[in-house]
Design goal:
Length: 334
């Protein structure tokens, strides 16, 4: 039986990552984190694409070295086609195309959000099919029904802002540096959820987080008028209140989806799946409702090439290759 080594490349936003996958198993997963955006309070697209150009060659070299192979051992290259920042995606797509062409090996395009779901297939125990996946990141919030590695259906999604954006933007209001989400989580662990914030009442399995951000903005404005030191004194409790509100909104819809579908295999994915409150809430619901919970290892929560490689491996098995005419897409249908 031939051994299939896939190189995977992820460059959808501000992390440059490369991984090597052998027959579906992760051999290496290298991530270069861009730190240049912190002073701007968010990702600057043009700066991100320039950083990818600087990092992609050494990151790929490091992934091959850690896997103990050379580029001549590769049998395919998987890459993020989209969605994401167009300039960032172009760097990864162009590199993948050039390297595949020079080696004479096939190209596999991967949808970034499909890859987040299939991060659960990077290491055991794997969820069994069908399963529901709550995919939560800075740009997306979705409940996905997964019936097979290449068969997924969106049951609900945000109609405006993503949960990860709500974490970062409310954190920015509190004076926390970018990315604020992990810092909100840190402070929340030391506080209590004593302040009520707006919870959206959007129907079905969809989400809305814009109202929450507005609620926090007005709350802080009013409190700061009478007490300029309010944020400094109550930071832990404010963070706990914001985090609890977001998690309650997520879990309410996830519980509803599980009830409607009868599916008890429940997973979370995406950058926000690293949040300690969300992980604890899923485990608590699982114990209460008889779910089997699947929570990814931290290295597979954030944007990373291993998840691109795992998703690409399933497409590789089906011979779902693309030609050199493939282009990056900032927005893609799921």
């Amino acid at each position: 039986m031939n051994t299939n080594y896939l190189l995977a490349i992820e460059s959808s936003c501000d992390d440059t990552s490369a991984a090597v996958i052998v027959d579906g198993q992760v051999l290496s997963n290298i991530v270069s984190v861009q730190t240049a955006h912190a002073s701007y309070g968010g990702v600057v697209p043009e700066l991100a694409s320039r950083e990818h150009q600087l990092h992609i060659v050494p990151v790929v070299a490091a992934a091959l070295k850690e896997a103990g192979i050379t580029k001549e051992d590769l049998t395919g290259i998987a890459f993020t086609k989209g969605p994401g920042l167009l300039g960032s995606l172009i760097v990864g797509v162009t590199f993948a195309k050039s390297m595949a062409l020079s080696l004479g090996i096939p190209l596999i395009d991967v949808h970034h959000m499909h890859a987040h779901v299939l991060a659960h297939m990077a290491e055991k125990p794997y969820p069994s099919f069908p399963f529901l996946c709550l995919t939560v990141s800075g740009g997306h919030t979705q409940i996905i029904k997964v019936t097979a590695p290449l068969q997924m259906e969106i049951l609900g999604e945000t109609i405006d802002d993503a949960a990860g954006e709500a974490f970062d933007k409310t954190g920015k209001m509190l004076g926390l540096p970018y990315p604020a989400g992990p810092l909100v989580d840190k402070h929340a662990r030391q506080g209590q959820a004593i302040y009520p914030f707006t919870r959206s009442k959007v129907g079905g399995l969809d989400f809305s987080f814009s109202g929450l951000k507005t609620s926090v903005l007005y709350f802080l404005r009013d409190r700061m008028k009478t007490d300029p030191e309010f944020i400094n004194k109550e930071l832990d409790n404010i963070c706990a209140s914001v985090q609890t509100t977001i998690i309650d909104m997520l879990m309410h819809k996830l519980e509803k989806a599980a009830k409607e579908t009868g599916i008890l295999q429940i997973a979370i994915a995406g950058g926000v799946s690293a949040n300690s409150g969300l992980r604890a809430a899923l485990e608590a619901r699982a114990a209460e409702l008889g779910w089997t919970a699947h929570i990814p290892a931290f290295q597979y929560c954030r944007d990373n090439a291993a998840m691109i490689g795992v998703a690409g491996y399933y497409k590789f098995l089906e011979g779902q290759f693309v030609g050199q005419e493939v282009t990056a897409e900032a927005r893609m249908e799921f």
